[in-house]
Every structure is written in C-alpha cells, then in structure tokens.
Design brief:
6 strands, Rossmann fold, about 200 residues, about 15% strand, single chain, six-stranded parallel beta sheet
Length: about 200
C-alpha cells in the first residue's frame, strides 16, 4: 500500500492526524505533502509546530502524530518540489487523499492547475485513473464550490466531505473524527473498526 496524503490549509487538521495514524497502523507507505498554510493550521489546531524542511518535519510527525520514534515508511515531500517522484505517472501510487481539502486547492485541481506538488499529484491521479479522494471542510458552500466538486466527480475523483454522521451515537469528538476517517478508509478498501456500522 502506497498512498499520497496531502494536507491543505483548510480547518480540520485533526482529520489528517487520525488518517495518518490509521494508515501507519496498517503499515502503509505514506507520501506526505503539507502546504504552507496547512502548517499554520496544524500549529493552531493541534499545537504542533512544523518546520518548512521535510527532513525536520518527519521526526516531529513520527513522534507527535504517529506516536513512534521513527516510521520508515513515511516520506515527506516539499510542497514546491515538482521534481518529486510522485509528480510522475510512473510512481506506483495506490491512491491519493487530500484531507482536509481547502476550496482553493479543490478549485485548482478542478481546473487542471499544477502550481505545487499537491495539485500536480492530484492531476496525475486523475490522468492515470487512480483513486483520488478529496475531503473538503467548508460551510456554507457557494455555487462555485459546488460546480468545482461536480467537475471533479465527473473527472473521476471521489468527494468525501468532513461530515460526520450520528447514527453510531458518538460520545466524544474522537468518535466524530473516526467516522469521517473510517469513510475514507472504506473508499480505500481498508478494513477498520473506527465506527459501528448500521445494522
């Protein structure tokens, strides 16, 4: 399993944190891209300060997000590194997830703009017909947002909004986070026990 996980600058860094933990628990290879704005959101929402340098980021993410002294399957790519291996269709990637996905990132992907590695990797996923999961966290949605999501859905992306359900009777915030992350794992066909399914 080799996944690209991109964290853009929308609110909801805790979703990305939980997804990374779940993927690491499965022993997956994680190709991680964090936008500059996402680093600010992560500091504000999770209290984790990330340097701009990917090498420095790896140690912090392994320890403070994955709870490990090291995770050898974690590879962090600089947002501006368009020469990265994952910018090519020849990279053996199983799926890409943008979580959370800002409306700016979603818009640029919808219109084929490849100004950074998140956008280029998403463009590659679409052209190679690989699973591309975009998890927007925005409300309310305007007409432009909705049109962009329709464009992406028609192009082959899967839109999974950060929109938890309540039929599993959540008792704490983590139950709501796990529901959304569990839906993403479902889309990746990864078995999990993050929420109780409807019976």
């Amino acid at each position: 399993m080799n996944y690209i996980v991109a964290i853009s600058g929308a609110s909801g860094a805790i979703y990305a944190q939980r997804l990374l933990q779940a993927l690491a628990q499965e022993g997956a290879r994680i190709q991680l891209i964090i936008s500059d704005t996402a680093r600010l959101v992560i500091k504000h929402e999770l209290g984790i300060e990330l340097a701009a340098d990917p090498t420095a980021q790896k140690a912090i993410i392994a320890e403070q997000i994955l709870g490990k002294s090291d995770y050898p399957h974690l590879h962090i790519h600089a947002i501006d590194n368009l020469a990265a291996s994952i910018a090519s269709g020849t990279a053996p990637i199983d799926a890409m997830i943008v979580l959370p996905c800002s409306m700016g990132t979603l818009s640029r992907i919808a219109h084929g703009i490849s100004g950074n590695l998140i956008e280029r990797s998403a463009d590659v996923a679409l052209k190679e017909k690989r699973p591309l999961i975009l998890a927007p966290r925005e409300t309310p949605l305007n007409t432009i947002h909705l049109r962009n999501m329709l464009e992406l859905s028609q192009a082959g992306a899967q839109i999974i909004p950060c929109m938890p359900a309540f039929y599993h009777c959540p008792k704490q915030i983590n139950d709501l986070i796990d529901f959304v992350v569990g839906k993403i794992l479902d889309a990746l066909k990864i078995d999990h026990q993050l929420f109780k399914r409807w019976e």
